[in-house]
Design brief:
- With 469 residues, the chain is α/β, with parallel strands linked by helices.
- It has helices at 45-57, 79-82, 112-130, 137-144, 148-165, 199-204, 206-225, 239-266, 300-307, 309-312, 341-349, 378-387, 394-401, 407-410, 432-435, 443-446; strands at 5-10, 18-24, 27-33, 67-69, 71-74, 93-95, 98-101, 170-172, 188-194, 270-275, 278-282, 318-320, 362-364, 391-392, 439-440, 461-466.
- Strands 8-7-5-3-2-1-16 form a 7-stranded mixed β-sheet, with no helix packed on it. A 5-stranded mixed β-sheet has the order 9-10-11-12-13. It has a two-stranded parallel sheet with strand order 4-6.
- α3 crosses α4, α3 (112-130) crosses α8 and α7 runs antiparallel to α8 (239-266).
- It starts with a strand and ends with a strand.
Length: 469
């Protein structure tokens, strides 16, 4: 127990495993926001993170040998946010509450069309995974978002863990607060800013719904013309037409998977935690678009600006940077001026200091410079570095740790800076031309050059503490 609020980002590679401890009178309130990673199961990063959370951070539960976790928050269904919710990892933890984005509620009427899109995209990607076809690294990553681990994690979150702990899942949406969900935390209010309850209306759009219906009809036509024996040729359609239809379905299936993946990011649970005069924003992978358009596919940030602007119109004290530092998840339009809607949001929540003033806000980036060539985005992180106080020049940090460090020779000896599916772009933080610019504290760089670099033995994390205002 203490007077400070703690935010801890466990280093699970490209993924989120965020622990929040809020002072609550004579006790603390303990939250876990997401638990997922793009790392393979053999790395053990998520299991070790949860074991560390259990043994080192959580208080005793009601039953002997158990620890207490007051709230699990699930932002969205991607593997790098939920894959670690294995019921075995939580065997000795009593869970009091589970909040899940309303977009994952199978009975939610206003998410009916979005759920159909996700089911269709999932079936296409699972079929591709089972085909045995050689996949590019980028396509393999997309297919991985729909892996069997997601299904097991979803079952654990919606069935196994609630039943074991005698609780009901709350499918949360914008406008609801901790009071609405009967959570009482001293000097604290938690407000859900996204997603809006009308998932289909705000995030899917009419055009995507019509395209999905057309593609489903084509899929059924393809199935009706298929034959049971693989070696036989179809008799009621020419081989060339059959192959063209098959190719079109695969192409469109991939397009819908990309579309669905974007929508899943945009239906992330977004939380504003207001504690002791401090404002903390946890955004999952919420994305932004150029503008808001009613009845269209909208970015979550744009929707929040139009529906929950009162919560975003003043500076925050902490930001969990969205989507592991990707350019599409922090509202900053590098090519537009200050009057652009997106930049208005950014300047409102994280304003640039004026004159000789120094920034006071803090943030964390849970990331790994490996899986995606555009994660993290260098220009975005350096822009964030101007707006937060807990920034770092990692080139100076590396040089301080190693007297013989030579950026021209040694930079790629750090495991965090290696391994790409294609040559990295010049915008990426990690290239030596970006390392000497201040950027936010990030999980991968904090472990760069330490241990074996594969996160196979140690539990690594990055902390931010906030005092009452």
């Amino acid at each position: 127990m203490g007077s400070k609020l703690l935010v801890r980002a466990y280093n699970v590679g490209c993924g989120d495993c965020i622990y929040v401890r809020i002072p609550d009178g004579d006790d603390d309130f303990h939250i876990l926001i997401d638990c997922g990673s793009k790392e393979g199961a053999k790395s053990g990063v998520m299991k070790r993170a949860i074991k560390h959370l259990e043994t080192e951070m959580l208080p005793a539960g009601e039953d002997a040998g158990k620890k207490r976790l007051d709230l699990i928050v699930v932002t969205h269904r991607h593997e790098d946010h939920i894959k670690g919710f294995n019921a075995k990892f939580f065997e000795h933890i009593e869970i009091k509450n589970i909040w899940i984005t309303a977009a994952m509620d199978k009975t939610h009427v206003q998410a009916k069309r979005s759920l159909k899109l996700h089911a269709f995209a999932s079936s296409q990607m699972q079929a591709l995974a089972e085909s045995g076809a050689a996949l590019s690294p980028e396509l393999n990553d997309l297919v991985g978002l729909y892996g069997i681990g997601n299904k097991g994690a979803t079952e654990a979150l919606t069935e196994t863990l609630p039943e074991k702990n005698g609780i009901e899942v709350k499918y949360v949406f914008a406008g609801k607060t901790s009071d609405d969900y009967e959570l009482s935390i001293d000097n604290t209010m938690i407000t859900v800013l996204a997603p809006e309850k009308d998932i289909d209306g705000f995030y899917l759009g009419k055009a995507a719904d019509e395209e999905l219906r057309g593609l489903q009809e084509s899929s059924e036509a393809f199935k009706s013309k298929s034959v049971a024996v693989e070696d036989e040729k179809p008799t009621n359609i020419s081989s060339s037409d059959f192959q063209r239809l098959q190719s079109r379905l695969l192409s469109n299936g991939l397009a819908f998977a990309v579309d669905d993946s974007k929508i899943q990011n945009n239906v992330s649970t977004v939380l504003l935690i207001e504690w002791a005069g401090r404002r903390l924003l946890f955004v999952g992978d919420a994305e932004w678009d150029d503008e808001y358009e009613e009845g269209s596919k909208n970015g979550s940030w744009n929707v929040m600006w139009h529906t929950r602007k009162e919560h975003l119109s003043e500076p925050i004290d902490f930001l969990k940077v969205g989507h592991h530092g990707s350019h599409n998840a922090t509202p900053w339009h590098r090519d537009a001026g200050p009057d652009h809607e997106v930049n208005q949001i950014f300047d409102a929540i994280l304003p640039l200091p004026i004159g000789n003033k120094k920034p006071t806000a803090q943030c964390l980036v849970s990331t790994k410079r490996k899986q995606y060539d555009t994660i993290p985005d260098a220009e975005l992180l350096t822009e964030l570095g101007k707006r937060v106080s807990n920034n770092k020049n990692y080139l100076e940090d590396f040089e301080a740790d190693d007297d013989d460090f030579d950026p021209d020779q040694d930079i790629f000896n750090y495991s965090v800076l290696k391994t790409y599916s294609k040559p990295p772009s010049p915008r990426q933080v990690g290239e030596k031309e970006w390392l000497d610019k201040n950027q936010p504290i990030r999980t991968d760089m904090e472990s760069a050059g330490k241990g074996d670099g594969n996160m196979t033995q140690t539990v690594e994390f990055v902390d931010v503490e906030l005092d009452p205002k």
